[in-house]
C-alpha cells in the first residue's frame, strides 16, 4: 500500500509538471525547454517527451494528451488499487501506545463496513475540492508574460522550487538524480524500517530524519525563492 502511495505521489507530480507546460507562458516555455533536455538525458526512458519520437504529433500536443488522459486514467486506476489494498490490509489504528496497547485498542474498536470508510473519504474529498475551487477563484494563478525562446528569467512553481538550487549547483542532471534519490528513499523506507513500534514518541531517530527532510525542503525552497534566476539550458 505504501508503494502504491509513492506511485500516486509521482503521478501527481507529473500532472503538476505537464500542467505547468500547458499554460504556454514564459515559465511554461522554459519548462518545455527543460523537458526536451531531460528527455535527452533519460535516453529511451524519456521517449514520450523527445522531439524525435514522432514528426506527426508535437511535443506540446503529447504533453496535453498526457495531462488530460494518460496521467488521470492511470491515477484513477491506481487509486482503485490503493483502495483495494486498504480494504485487504485494513486501516491502521492510531499508533499512540505500545504495540500491545495498540492491538488491544484495535480489537476493541467497532468494525465498520468498507463502504462507510469510502463515504467518509468522499466527504472529505469534496470538502478539500471545494476549498481548492474557492481558492482558485479568489486567487487564480493566472498566465504569465508571453514566452520568449532562448532566455531563462523565471523560476519553477513553488512545489518544484526545492530542485532549483540543485540545478544551479550541479546542472540539469540534478533534475534527474535528486528526484530519483527521493523516490528510492521512499521506496526503500518500508523495507528498511521493519520495527513493530509505531508510536512517534518512541521512534525518535525516524522522526528526526523526517524533521530534517522537511527542514531541508523548506530551506531549499526559501533559498531558491530569494536567489537570482540564471540560465541552465546550454550553460
Automatic annotation (TrEMBL):
Keyword terms of this UniProt record: Membrane, Transmembrane, Transmembrane helix
**Entries under Pfam families matching the protein:** Cytochrom_B_N_2
The cofactor(s) it depends on are: heme
Tell me, which GO biological process terms does this entry list? respiratory electron transport chain
Membrane-crossing segments per the record: 64-86, 121-138, 169-192, 204-226
Q: List, alphabetically, the PROSITE patterns matched.
A: CYTB_NTER (PS51002)
EC numbers for this chain: 7.1.1.8
Quote the cellular component terms of the Gene Ontology held in the record: membrane
Q: Does the keyword Transferase apply?
A: no
Q: Where is the Cytochrome b/b6 N-terminal region profile domain?
A: 1-95
GO function terms (MF aspect): oxidoreductase activity; quinol-cytochrome-c reductase activity
Catalysed reactions, semicolon-separated: a quinol + 2 Fe(III)-[cytochrome c](out) = a quinone + 2 Fe(II)-[cytochrome c](out) + 2 H(+)(out)
State the protein's name.
Cytochrome bc1 complex cytochrome b subunit
The uppermost taxa in this organism's lineage are: Bacteria, Bacillati, Actinomycetota, Thermoleophilia, Gaiellales
